[in-house]
Amino acid sequence: MKIYVKNMACVSCKLFVQDSLDELGIETIKVELGFFETKNDVTDEDKKQLNSMFKEAGLELLEKKQGVLIEKIRQVAIDYVYHSDGQPNHRFSLLLSKELDYSYTYLANFFSEVEAITIEQFIISLKIERIKELIIFGEDTFAEIANKLNYSSSQHLSMQFKKITGLTPTQFKSLKQKRRTTIQKM
After folding, report:
1. Are 93 and 65 a contacting pair, CB within 8 Å?
2. What is the pTM of this model?
3. 49 has pLDDT over 80
4. H or E stretch including 142?
5. Distance separating alpha carbons of residues 62 and 108, to the nearest angstrom
6. In this structure, which CATH number among 3.90.1150.30, 3.30.70.100, 3.40.50.720, 3.40.50.300 belongs to the domain 2-63?
C-alpha cells in the first residue's frame, strides 16, 4: 500500500517516518521523500496514530487525490532544486509533465489554485533556501552556487536573492544568525 505524506522533504523526515512505522509494527517496502510503501494495508487506527505522531514533526498523511497531486508536484520541485547539481538545465515544465503524466498547464493551474502561489514562485523559494544552505556551508563560491542551481550568472542569482530576501548573498553570508525557512513551512 502506497501512502503519501505532506511536507516530507528531507532525509531526517524519511528517518522519522521509518521510525514511526517501526514503532507501530508496520512493515515497509520503502520510504521515500513524499511517500512510503507498506507490505500490507494500513488500518484506519494505524493511520490515526501515524497522523498524531507525524503532527509533531510537521508531517501529515494525505489520502485525498488533490493533496496527493500537490505533494507529488512539491516533491518533483524539491528534487529538481536539491538534487540536480551539475546536471544540464532541463525545463521544469517538461520534467513535471513527464513525471506526473499531466499537461504542465493543468498542473500549474491546479497548484496555483490550491497553494495560492505559482509553481515558479515555489521553485524560486526553494532555490533561495538552497542558496542560503550552500552559503552557510561555505564550501562553494557564489559562481559555483549559481552554476549548481542553473542560474545564468552569479549576478542573476544575486539579484533574485536580494529581491526575495532584501539582502545580497554577501550580506547574508556576514549575518551572525543565518535565517532559513524549512521546506515544510514553505
Report:
1. no
2. 0.71
3. yes
4. helix 142-148
5. 20
6. 3.30.70.100
